[in-house]
Amino acid sequence: MPVAEHSVWIRIGRIMKKLSLVPNLCTGCRECQLMCSLKHAGRFNPAEARIRIEYDVEMNCYSPVICRQCDEPACADACPSEAFSRDDRSGSLVIDAEKCSLCLQCVDACPYGAIRVAPDGTVLKCDLCGGDPECVKFCSKRPEMSSPLMANPEGATALILIENGTPAPAQG
């Protein structure tokens, strides 16, 4: 039984993109975590990634865990420092490290477990890379699988970026 798919909308000016996650297509390679940490921390360290790959024993599959960019975010409501805001460019929910008091109430409030604490104690969550998510570019293909969202003869991926109704070409 496949894990539920979910999507996040990204706004870049007047262009809308849709980041779809199809968890049962995840290979568990964690390349997305490595590339995320490289983009944000300048080094390969999954503990510093804004995306996390978990194995769901019940469903017998790997699954990407990222911020779902909720319209009414419980994490932002729980933040006493008002450190959360929407990025004007992408529409993603971001944390202002200067305002964050590291109380971790946002970590507890997130219903998806998508906010985490880095080894240095800072709070991390997906910011959609400003509208060009690095994880999508390096998501491994499953040649034996297909996705209703993406007709690709090379195989389907767990992370799909769709722009203007058609999949955006993978880069990288």
UniProtKB/TrEMBL annotation:
For this protein, the parts annotated as crossing the membrane are none
Output the SUPFAM superfamilies linked to this UniProt entry: 4Fe-4S ferredoxins
Which residues belong to any copy of the 4Fe-4S ferredoxin-type domain?
17-47, 55-89, 91-120
Residues in the signal sequence: none
Q: Which GO terms describe its molecular function?
A: 4 iron, 4 sulfur cluster binding; metal ion binding
InterPro entries, sorted = 4Fe4S_Fe-S-bd (IPR017896), 4Fe4S_Fe_S_CS (IPR017900), RnfB_subfamily (IPR050294)
Q: Which UniProt keywords apply?
A: 4Fe-4S, Electron transport, Iron, Iron-sulfur, Metal-binding, Transport
| Record-given protein name | 4Fe-4S dicluster domain-containing protein
- Which organism does this sequence originate in? Abyssobacteria bacterium (strain SURF_5)
